[in-house]
Design a protein that fits this description.
With 329 residues, this protein is mainly alpha-helical. The chain has 14 helices and two strands; from the N terminus they run αααααβααααβααααα. α7 (188-198) packs across α9 (210-236).
């Protein structure tokens, strides 16, 4: 078994990329390190979303709800009870998985599919946004703030420290998500997911319990996304419902796998590098030219999506892998 079906050349490039990512914090300034953290964050979250859409073929446009639940659960435990993020993670992930199970059960049991399932996920994310706006215990619309202090050293247990510590934490999460998705994709469940994605009726006719495996997809994806939420809370130190649960947050999460290649293991990673790298580069260029254009990043995202959909409907990775022979024939 090889990683993501990669050829020897692909594995060599992957090893080089991993080595570069391990040493690069020692050679870049804080700004570039922040961009790299953002890239890894979107690569990780995109990998989590890819399980639902790329593997099982269930379009979710409300994944921000799982980010928000993970973030608010861990942050509230830390602020009110002093419970560290790693323990909070053990609570946040099940909370998001239960929420995913509820959404999945309502949708799959009553035959809500396709665009209607996507609308249902948006609706739940909006319910969460409005609900958290009125929950005083988590700060309501005024926001929830984590205590910030100047630490002379990195406190990994409480995720308090310098950006380089957050970088390595996110790198570890991204690598773990890649390996987990590799395992899932090559497992019996992964084959069933792909059968459901290609033709659910045919999969059901072959005896696959489509309800069960779609439920597993949404629950696993929700749990993984909640981990991104916990990281988000402790990295940014402030949470606002309008910011965390907004549909724009969900759209941001899905762009990397769409640009990189839905259903592939390398697509979300490549898409995150391309999209975030180019958008941040464009932002810096505009600032350098003294041009301030509100919404320029969103327009750039839209243009990128349009170009990729028209020119490379399968995403950049499948095209790149064929051109450079990075995957086994």
């Amino acid at each position: 078994m090889t990683l993501g079906g990669a050829s020897k050349r692909g594995l060599a490039l992957l090893a080089l990329l991993l080595a570069a990512l391990i040493v690069v914090p020692h050679f870049v300034n804080d700004y570039l390190l922040t961009i790299l953290i953002l890239i890894l964050y979107f690569a990780y979250a995109g990998q989590a979303w890819n399980i639902m859409m790329g593997f099982a073929g269930q379009l979710s446009l409300g994944h921000a709800i799982y980010v928000g639940l993970g973030a608010y659960t861990a942050a509230a435990l830390y602020v009110h009870f002093g419970i560290g993020p790693w323990i909070g993670l053990l609570v946040a992930v099940p909370v998001a998985m239960i929420c995913g199970a509820v959404i999945g059960f309502l949708a799959f049991r009553f035959g809500v599919a396709g665009v209607y399932f996507a609308i249902l996920t948006i609706a739940f994310a909006e319910f969460a946004r409005i609900g958290f706006d009125h929950i005083g215990y988590t700060g309501g619309s005024a926001g929830l703030f984590l205590p910030v202090a100047q630490y002379a050293h990195n406190d990994l247990w409480n995720l308090r420290g310098k950006p380089v510590m957050f970088y390595y934490v996110m790198l570890a999460f991204t690598a773990a998500a890649f390996l987990l998705c590799q395992f899932l994709l090559r497992s019996r469940m992964g084959y069933f997911w792909r059968a459901i994605r290609e033709d659910e009726e045919a999969a059901r006719a072959l005896g696959i319990d489509t309800f069960r495996y779609k439920m597993l997809a949404v629950v696993i994806s929700a749990g993984m996304t909640a981990v991104a939420g916990v990281f988000f809370a402790f990295y940014y130190n402030n949470l606002f419902p309008e910011q965390v649960f907004h549909i724009s947050r969900s759209i941001e999460l899905i762009l990397a796998p769409i640009i990189g290649g839905i259903g592939t293991l390398f697509g979300p990673i490549l898409g995150a590098f391309v999209l975030t790298g180019l958008s941040e580069g464009m932002t810096e260029l505009l600032h350098g030219l003294g041009i301030d254009v509100p919404g320029a990043k969103q327009v750039f995202y839209g243009v990128c999506l349009l170009v990729v959909v028209l020119a490379l409907p399968d995403g950049i990775w499948p095209w790149l892998a064929r051109r450079l022979r990075l995957e086994r024939p």
